[in-house]
Amino acid sequence: MHKACALTELAPGDAIRLETSPPIAVFHTEDGQLFALDDTCTHQDASLADGWVEGCEVECPLHASKFDLRTGAVDCPPAKLPVRTHRVEVVDGFIMVEESAEAPNLPPGLTATGHESQGSQAG
Asked: Which neighbouring-strand residues pair with 53?
């Protein structure tokens, strides 16, 4: 499990990015619900934690794809693939995230550990 932050440090309507591989975004909705998704939009390399949350959706700041915070499903293109969801719980006042075991859907050119190399190196 990943420790995100204290619940009191994430105001309703805000999100944070966890520097996992791949990164995870934790969202605290205006009505007090907590959700965690892969942070990278599946259309292009953009942080969903930097996006806009309305209800149970997050809008990517780059090309306005929308994802359902509950399911990770795409609600509005240009993204076509969903993002993974992760289990969230509050333990002793801290937001804890259990990372999904499913393979992530990442945009072209990205791997779970970052950008693909532009060429191979001899070793």
From this structure: 58
